């Protein structure tokens, strides 16, 4: 009897394996490889990849960059209209510097994500369809540049989803995408 | 210990267990009782705080103010994920080593010293969280720098981790002595699983020292700064590593209980052991899946670690997912306990809470926890899960449902086989696993829906009312209603376990011994050679079940990728 509580008997390594168990292992290994292949493939063919350059930067330097971005942008009632394709987002306890912004649908923007103090979460969703949503981590001392292109004109809401102190729940801003 | 046991030992301090046939030494048994009961105490504390946490997130009730919410959430997390689990795991190491090998516990004084340090660490952490005041913040589980928590918190965490390392040493020493005395013997599978667990535990705990050591120095202003990306990487070595300890300990318990209570055999020693070895090599890479939506770490690093390497561990889990039910199927068929496709399963001792808790653990862990874990471990899909309520949904399916149920199942048998007491409140014990598992299943699915379909953030006390804006997650309210009810029922289910355990300890009759479940292990063992080898038994029922699992896996993965493909363009 093959009990898990006793020393296995005889030459257990050469004991045959049930045919269905062998099949299952093959199926599982194939699935693992497919998942890996799919992920690699998506970086080539997919439109959603959380990939971009990271730069080291002090919070002060980053804050200066955001201030410069705001200076160059056009100030409108709904938010800042960036001067070019760069958008700077400075997360802080407890708000979003550089937001709200007004963007054009179908244009590619470079989002520069950084923090002035602690870790934050850049969590964005389409107001028309909440399941169109995604999150990126924001770390102090790093600037992360991630491209984004919004196709659908709508209002996109930004909340913080990394705990950043007692005011965490109040961090909210918007990205307006116009057609 | 505690004077609550009904067993006597011989002059050498051993006794033979009438159910498992194991020779158990008092030195190991005392420690199993001590660690096991402390674990249950932590479960009770964490469970009380679950009430507050759940009733705050169900905003119709909205119990706590935001500031209090973070404090209560931190206490909930530390007592359940860390103290309940780790105290129990040390007990499991002492069962998997000394009990199974029929040995004394080596270095028993270290087991006591480790216990004292762990307890001191746990009390310090709880006190530090409770007394958190400005400018410190509640640490939650992760205490990400540079958001400050009190130095006492980091100190308590460090002491706890060091204590756990000390507590693991007697296990290693027991193994070492066994190997020296019997150099050619093969370890029984359960001891082998415990050994794999201990290696992974060791790696994780070293990560813990690298996390809390520097963090403590930073809070004491000995280190001027601590890099947040460095902290995240070190933190997740223990943060995820401790989940791997949970996983391996749970799987070891699955092999143990299905055998003792259900009559399972090992479908293939080679396959199951290879799967444990795969864990040793690959599972730590799983830690990287917490950094999937992070800057700093490169794309290649993320993909290699979470996929190519971590799939070695996923493969191992898929192997156990087959091997354990297959062992049950083969063992029961051989004993004439199952006709047809699923007869072996339906005929099982479902009124035995050890059995039902274990089977529910396997099913719920696999379908709800395992599948979702692999999905959000894919780099791009991670964006839609990261830091949403779906993440607590996932790990409440794994640890809070799967592992907790398995440890409850084991707990029932510790009461019988270690304390020698029959369960008090028998009818409650019978339904408890179903109540807890069923309600938790509903609760976690609601958390996942709210997270992935509505993007509801985790660690957020008021998503229906965000200060300073009209915007809210009102649309998810119906899901929260079901979540709230499910959470309350599961808390009742969890509390009943604690009630039965305490009632058994204090009022339980003497356990008569003899067969448990619906099969006698000793009889089964006696009949060793009168049936065909295990691998020649039919495993068709298990095969059908695992194919259903596989189909679910594929469909859910496809749905998640479909959701992702609907988002706007992100990245190059
Ligand atoms: C009785 C059933 C339980 C209920 C109803 C429950 C409910 C919850 C809820 C609602 C959250 C908050 C999610 C958020 O806002 O982010 C949470 C967090 C958490 N729970 Fe539970 N829980 C239960 C049992 C457990 C168990 C058994 C464990 C561990 C074994 C556990 C570990 C955790 C952890 C680690 C967190 C995350 C804390 C953080 O974000 O740092 N829970 N739980
Ligand atoms: Cu925040």
UniProtKB/TrEMBL annotation, chain A:
It comes from the Archaea. GO terms for cellular component: membrane. GO terms for molecular function: copper ion binding; cytochrome-c oxidase activity. InterPro entries: CcO_II-like_C (IPR002429), Copper_CuA (IPR001505), Cupredoxin (IPR008972). Signal peptide: none annotated. PROSITE patterns: COX2, COX2_CUA. Keywords: Copper, Metal-binding. Coiled coil: none annotated. Residues 82-179 form the Cytochrome oxidase subunit II copper A binding domain. This is Cytochrome c oxidase subunit 2. It comes from Haloarchaeobius iranensis.
TrEMBL record, chain B:
The keyword Coiled coil does not apply. One of its GO terms (cellular component) is membrane. The chain crosses the membrane at residues 34-55, 75-101, 113-131, 151-173, 185-210, 245-264, 276-293, 308-328, 355-375, 395-415, 435-456, 476-506, 543-564. One of its GO terms (molecular function) is cytochrome-c oxidase activity. Residues 34-572 form the Cytochrome oxidase subunit I profile domain. GO terms for biological process: aerobic respiration. InterPro entries: Cyt_c_oxase-like_su1_dom (IPR023616), Cyt_c_oxase-like_su1_sf (IPR036927), Cyt_C_Oxase_1 (IPR000883). PROSITE patterns: COX1. Keywords: Membrane, Transmembrane, Transmembrane helix. It holds the Pfam family COX1. SUPFAM superfamilies: Cytochrome c oxidase subunit I-like. This is Cytochrome c oxidase subunit 1. It comes from Haloarchaeobius iranensis.
């Amino acid at each position: 009897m093959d009990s898990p509580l006793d020393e296995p008997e005889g030459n257990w390594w050469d004991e045959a394996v049930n045919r269905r168990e062998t099949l299952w292992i093959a199926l599982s290994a194939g699935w693992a490889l497919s998942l890996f292949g799919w992920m690699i493939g998506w970086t080539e063919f997919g439109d959603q990849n959380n990939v971009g350059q990271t730069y080291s930067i002090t919070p002060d330097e980053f804050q200066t960059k955001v201030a410069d971005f705001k200076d160059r942008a056009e100030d409108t009632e709904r938010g800042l209209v960036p001067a070019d394709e760069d958008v700077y987002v400075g997360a802080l306890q407890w708000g979003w510097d550089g937001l709200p912004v007004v963007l054009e649908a179908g244009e590619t923007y470079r989002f520069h994500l950084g923090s002035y103090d602690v870790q934050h979460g850049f969590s964005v969703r389409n107001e028309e369809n909440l399941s169109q949503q995604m999150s990126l981590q924001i770390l102090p001392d790093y600037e992360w540049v991630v491209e984004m292109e919004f196709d659908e004109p709508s209002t996109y809401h930004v909340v913080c989803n990394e705990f950043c102190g007692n005011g965490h729940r109040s961090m909210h801003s918007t990205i307006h995408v116009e057609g | 210990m505690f004077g609550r046991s009904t067993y006597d030992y011989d002059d050498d301090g051993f006794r033979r267990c009438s159910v498992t046939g194991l020779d158990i030494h008092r030195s190991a048994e005392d420690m199993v009782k001590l660690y096991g009961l402390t674990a249950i105490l932590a479960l009770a504390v964490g469970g009380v705080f679950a009430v507050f946490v759940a009733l705050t997130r169900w905003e119709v009730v909205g119990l706590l103010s935001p500031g209090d919410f973070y404090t209560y959430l931190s206490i909930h997390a530390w007592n359940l994920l860390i103290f309940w689990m780790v105290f129990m795991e040390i007990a499991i190491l002492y069962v998997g080593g000394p009990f199974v090998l029929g040995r004394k516990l080596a270095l028993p004084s270290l087991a006591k010293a480790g216990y004292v340090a762990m307890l001191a660490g746990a009390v310090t952490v709880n006190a530090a969280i409770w007394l958190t005041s400005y400018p410190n913040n509640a640490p939650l589980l992760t205490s990400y720098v540079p958001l400050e928590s009190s130095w006492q918190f980091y100190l308590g965490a460090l002491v706890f981790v060091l204590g756990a390392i000390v507590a693991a040493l007697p296990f290693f020493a027991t193994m070492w002595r066994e190997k020296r005395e019997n150099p050619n013997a093969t370890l029984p599978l359960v001891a082998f699983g415990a050994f794999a667990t201990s290696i992974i535990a060791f790696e994780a705990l070293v990560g813990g020292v690298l996390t809390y050591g520097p963090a403590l120095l930073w809070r004491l202003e000995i280190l001027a700064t601590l890099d947040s990306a460095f902290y995240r990487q070190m933190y997740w070595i223990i943060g995820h590593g401790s989940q791997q300890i949970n996983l391996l300990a749970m799987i070891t318990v699955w092999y143990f209980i299905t055998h003792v209570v259900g009559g399972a055999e090992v479908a293939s020693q080679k396959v199951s052991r290879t799967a444990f070895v795969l864990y040793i090599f690959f599972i730590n890479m799983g830690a990287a899946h917490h950094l999937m939506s992070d800057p700093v770490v490169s794309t290649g690093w993320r993909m290699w670690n979470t996929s190519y390497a971590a799939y070695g561990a996923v493969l191992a889990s898929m192997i156990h997912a087959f091997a354990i039910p297959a062992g049950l199927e083969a063992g029961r068929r051989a004993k004439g306990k199952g006709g047809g496709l699923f007869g072996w399963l339906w005929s099982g001792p479902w009124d035995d809470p050890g059995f039902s808790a274990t089977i529910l653990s396997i099913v719920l862990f696999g379908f709800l926890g395992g599948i979702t874990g692999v999905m959000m471990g894919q780099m791009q899909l991670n964006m839609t899960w990261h830091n949403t309520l779906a993440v607590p949904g996932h790990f409440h399916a794994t640890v809070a449902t799967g592992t907790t149920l398995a440890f409850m199942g084991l707990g029932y048998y510790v009461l019988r086989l270690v304390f020698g007491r029959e369960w008090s409140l028998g009818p409650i014990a019978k339904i408890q696993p179903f109540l807890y598992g069923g309600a938790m299943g509903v609760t976690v699915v609601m958390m996942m829906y709210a997270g992935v379909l509505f993007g509801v953030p985790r660690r957020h006390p008021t998503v229906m009312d965000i200060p300073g804006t009209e915007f809210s997650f009102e649309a998810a309210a119906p899901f929260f209603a079901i979540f709230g009810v499910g959470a309350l029922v599961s808390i009742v289910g969890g509390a009943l376990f604690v009630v039965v355990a305490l009632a058994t300890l204090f009022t339980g009759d003497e356990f008569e011994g003899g067969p448990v479940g619906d099969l006698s292990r000793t009889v089964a063992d006696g009949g060793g050679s009168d049936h065909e080898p295990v691998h020649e038994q039919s495993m068709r029922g298990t095969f059908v079940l695992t194919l259903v699992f596989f189909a679910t896996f594929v469909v859910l993965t496809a749905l998640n990728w479909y959701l992702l493909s609907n988002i706007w363009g992100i990245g190059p």
